[in-house]
Design a protein that fits this description.
Number of domains: 2
Strand content: 5-15%
Number of strands: 4
Shape: flat
Radius of gyration: 21 Å
Helix content: 40-55%
Number of helices: 10
Amino acid sequence: MADIEESTTYKSLVTRIRAALSERGLDAEPVAVRNVLTHAVATLAERLDVGPRAVLLYIDPDVIADQIAAAADPAAEGSDHVHGVRPARPDTRSVPTPRHACSRPLMALTQAVKYASTNGDSRTVQHAADLAFELGVAVGADPDRDRVDIPVGVLDEAADILDHVADRIESHGWSLCPCGDKHGQARIDARVLDALRGDADLVRTTAPAKMGEGAFLDPATGLPHTRRRRRLSARNPGNDLGSPGWGRAAPSTPAIVLPAFLRGRSDRWGRRPWVG
């Protein structure tokens, strides 16, 4: 399989799949895309009894992108172990923020890391830790200034992570002490839940106040680019917001476009062909 990964067709497919994911609001690591594509090609070549190079000719980048988006959807089973995909950051602006105000999202993100690590969500652990690191870099960039420039994408993703952890505390029973004994932990978890949601709203609403009304709003929906939009989409997978997750609705087309003599044979691989 290593030989086809160096082919022009294979490299072009990787580029086109990443571009399709970008249209769905996702940024995927090249190695993650290659892992999925290689797995798909190998499995289909074996099932269809054709060579890997022949399979490459029939791969549809949009369908591969939809399958990656489905695997990365926070609502999907097993998505907490998908690490190679993050929300895209099309907005490259920064928000001038008072230095002291950065302590709130930093503290909230550390709480998110603690809850996610205790409850086995390694994807959220890595994402929240990366965001805390980015905030720390921004805070220390120019110690002589009273304000620091925080990327809009960092604030947007931080609000989303805090909402995600709050949702897990409320609906999945996440706790800092999942021992099962009653020793007041439920009361503490409830207080943390309220604090996380308050901090998420604070992060979400600070940017429009600093940059002008609507800075965080999606022009198509009028909703913030946050968990709220995704939660609405998850409830209504057929709407214009798209599903699964951040992307548009996954089509019902086959994973590859097969020639007539191959149609009717198995043309799908595993339910979630995700590696890494």
